[in-house]
Amino acid sequence: MLKQQLNFKLSQKLSPQQIQLMKLIQLPTQAFEQRVSQEMEENPALEGGKDENPLDDDFGDEQQDDYGNDSDVIETDINVDDYLSDDEIPSYKLSANNYSADDDDKQTPYASGTSFNQFLLQQLNTYRLDEQQEEIARFLVGSVDESGYIRRDLADILDDLAFTQNIYTTEEEIELVLKLVQGLDPAGVGARDLQECLSLQLERKVETPDVDLAKQIIDEAFDQFTKKHYKKLLAKFDITEEQLRDAIQEIGGLNPKPGGAYSGNTRMVEHVVPDFTIRIVEGSLELTLNGRNAPELHVSREYTNMLQGYKASKEKSKSQKDAVLFIKQKLDAAKWFIDAIKQRQQTLFITMNAIMHHQEEYFLTGDERKLKPMILKDIADTINMDVSTVSRVANSKYVDTPYGTILIKQLFSESMKNDQGEDVSTREIKKILEITIGEEDKRKPLTDDKLAQILKEKGYPIARRTVAKYREQLDLPVARLRKVI
Prior knowledge:
Helix content: 40-55%
Largest sheet: 4 strands, mixed
Low-confidence stretches: 55-112, 265-269
Number of domains: 3
Distance between the termini: 85 Å
Strand order of the largest sheet: 3-2-5-6
């Protein structure tokens, strides 16, 4: 049996403007500039720079008289004064002084020149090859990645040559051409794995006892070498520790990524533009927001003049009314976008200011051991904003400090209790762990159990498994792999 009933329910829905604002807050400086440029292209009612012809008081009053009455609001549903500056407010009160002087439109130049693959192809031109071998060689060079490796099986290359290049060959011929490609510069290029890459480089070195031993170790005991089973290597090759040390030194001088050594590599590098700058001025912290986050925008005067023309005309056609509705939409969008940018600036500055004061001791000293425990909720409660807003600022913004440019997210960390019962940052513990490992005797590296004991003596009672977790997060290997002879 069907029934109709009325239910009341409270629900929170975000307006399109709120969603757009959150997206704006999340954008870092470079992406934000692109978003502003896109909006200006899409909305002709939005213009950049200062308004060169600001309205005087008489004109503003006239506008209020012309567009403020009820009949016109009903007809055009717009009040032009909402989109113009209020001349009764001095201009200096409409600007903030917490932006950096970096207001210039600076473009980052990118290097141009020969790519790594083109560099290899140019070398191929010095070889005499038949037509098929040349096609195979070019295909192999095209398969070389930016590190200098060919990370594909010969069987896969064989199939690709048949299906895409209409070249039918054998794995033996591909292997023969591959040896030729591996003879190109830089040494080690065209290798299929690290072992082959190191071996190729050692083959080009002048033969010495150390180089010969290093070649034997790489070719015959690579697994034992990577796992640092030095005793097994000493027994296998019947050598002294000094001989092994010299051979390892030869291997240590090789390049595991020969492609990265090419100076003409034109791979695009991501450039980080700091969104904030923190400086120490007379013992106090000073925060500035990158001036590129505060573009000067205003509503197009031409669009407001169109409304004046519409008002002055006695006969209003349907096409004119449609045009006025279009103008209204564009003016509404322009006004909202300008307001959203101002709100974004305010949100960014308030959030970073709270973070700076929470971590004041760190920013004054640069010592990571001075970092306080800080989670998103701590800052959200301080500035009375939602946690998601703080997260959007922290995850995508960078701050330039006297100690380098860092991602704001890195300033956040969980807390742990020390032996005094005080809350300390896990970042502080990780830094002490990193320093302890850096100062250890590499001939007898400290085990995780020993590290846990040392940290306990320093006042940080944490378990061995926690030490192991922090060590892995710091990308530090286990004790056996840190050992040197």
